[in-house]
Design a protein that fits this description.
The protein has 247 residues and is of the alpha/beta class. It has helices at residues 4-19, 31-40, 56-80, 117-124, 147-158, 185-193, 201-213, 229-235, and strands spanning 26-27, 47-48, 51-52, 85-89, 96-100, 109-114, 128-132, 134-136, 142-144, 162-167, 182-184, 218-223, 242-245. The two termini are 32 Å apart. Belongs to the acetylglutamate kinase family. ArgB subfamily.
């Protein structure tokens, strides 16, 4: 969602959802902007098994970019379309308490305890929460959390009707390369075991399965760059992307 046009379209969709009675929660990432800021500040990154080590200096940049730049850009876009959005991170109001995922990766966290009260309070006042994927540790640390993981944890805490995972591909594809529009959780497991689902799609489908197991009614993986992708998914017969339901 790098272009202004894509951001405007997304913000318009979110506002329309709220106007028809849906309570949307936006959880975002910001990897490219984080990388650009680290380069600008000449902060070198160490990698372990292909994963970035998030040291103290890096997590401070991550928080600055996610909460200060990306989050406010989305808030401003939604408000510019007539909505009422407020920016938060998982550190606010004890929304997301995290444990360290792997000591070798530094300040990378996994959601351990969720407190969605602040979100219900915002819903009651017709406010759209926009959440940066940062969590608080039990000893006051700040943890960077994968955006999809954070979204899944928040959707699970809310027992959401639907979790939309916006990505840069059109959905889950079968062995022939065609998007599968509807799947059950068991099919996702089978496609992962036989290698049909691979690479960057695996974390997204794992998030989907975890969310379904926690009470989310359905998960959709879709291309967030497509115009009006969110509304097409929610309000048209064929939707957009891949709809995943429990078995």
């Amino acid at each position: 969602m790098g272009s202004d046009e894509a951001m405007e379209s997304f913000a318009r969709d979110v506002v329309l959802m709220r106007q028809v009675g849906v309570n949307p929660v936006v959880v975002h990432g910001g990897g490219p902007m984080i990388n650009a800021m680290l380069d600008k500040l000449d902060i070198q990154s160490e990698f372990v098994n292909g994963k970035r080590v998030t040291d103290k200096a890096t997590v401070e940049v991550v928080e600055m970019v996610l909460s200060g730049l990306v989050n406010k850009r989305i808030v401003q876009a939604i408000n510019g379309q007539g909505g009422s959005a407020v920016g938060l991170s998982g550190k606010d109001a004890q929304l997301m308490t995290c444990d360290q995922t792997d000591e070798s990766l530094g300040f990378v966290g996994s959601p351990a305890e969720m407190n969605p009260k602040i979100l219900h309070d915002l819903f009651a006042h017709d406010v759209i929460p926009v959440i940066a994927p940062l969590g608080a540790g039990r000893n006051g640390e700040t943890f960077n959390v994968n955006g999809d993981t954070a979204a899944g944890a928040i959707a699970s805490a809310l027992k959401a009707d639907r979790l939309l995972l916006l990505t840069d591909v059109s959905g889950v594809k079968n062995a022939a390369g065609d998007v599968v529009t509807e799947l059950k959780a068991g099919q996702i497991r089978e496609m992962t075991l036989d290698g049909t689902i691979a690479g960057g799609m695996i974390p997204k489908t794992e998030t989907a399965l975890d969310a379904l197991h926690s009470g989310v009614r359905a998960v959709v993986i879709l291309d967030g760059r497509a115009p009006n992708a969110v509304l097409l998914e929610l309000y048209t017969e064929h939707g957009a992307g891949s709809l995943i339901r429990p078995d």
